[in-house]
């Protein structure tokens, strides 16, 4: 039975390298010629980058091929792997729908085309043989104009059958000069009854306390316990969960080693701040959620008690999980009922 929840996974970074390479071999002669052998592509796709901005450039590689026609292909394989190899019962997929629309269209036409993208992702996510509860988080983007970002919020409100929240992405160092815009958009989203998360306090350049009051969860947020632990009591009172994605911080050069996260976990647990362990970009990292758990344990970043607590926090803070308890608790109940029936 699937047991885990991943609250922070980008659609663009979710495609595992071998599947993306095979797609290029079959449909993109230019990329196939650039990477004729798989190991060369895997090394390029998964290697460590110097900065978050350099790392995010890889998303454009996938966004360009995630079109209306190809999205079902990629999503089916994503779900199959998540269920069989990661044992996921719940997954929130986040992405910017505008960036999956044809670039040759005018801005207004691309805004209109976003609705179909959300529908395609929603329908493709319903795979009967792999029963995972899946919902979408629509990402505003730091490099898109206000009109597009507002349209993304409006679309999320109109399509709550597929969408559980909004986010802002694109590199947290780029929010500063447009901070008032994003505050207004988050206020607007909350007024529409939308759930909210946001990439914030991931890097030392992305620390904007002005945005914190509008977030129900915090995407990454590692700089809060590392550099601003005085904020933790209010985070705990507000019941804001941090979405921690361990491998990301190594791939972006944000941390030198995983053990640096021990301070993050210890200070959050001491303050009563909840943490959900997530993958962020499982394909770019070539690392699955169970391996994130194992790496944190084997490197003494967390203990088993903390791991189990984080696994439960993920379901507790999941925006669209339809049950009151995690699946492990539901399975325990089923097994007890069976034992009673046999007796």
From TrEMBL:
Protein name: adenosine deaminase
Keywords: Hydrolase, Metal-binding, Zinc
Record-annotated Adenosine deaminase domain positions: 5-319
GO cellular component: cytosol
Keyword Zinc annotated: yes
Gene3D superfamilies: Metal-dependent hydrolases
Known cofactor(s): Zn(2+)
E.C. number: 3.5.4.4
InterPro entries: A_deaminase_dom, Ado/ade_deaminase, Metal_Hydrolase
Family per record: Belongs to the metallo-dependent hydrolases superfamily. Adenosine and AMP deaminases family.
Extent of the signal sequence: none
GO biological process: adenosine catabolic process; hypoxanthine salvage; inosine biosynthetic process
GO molecular function: adenosine deaminase activity; metal ion binding
Organism field: Atelocyanobacterium thalassa (isolate ALOHA)
Pfam family, one: A_deaminase
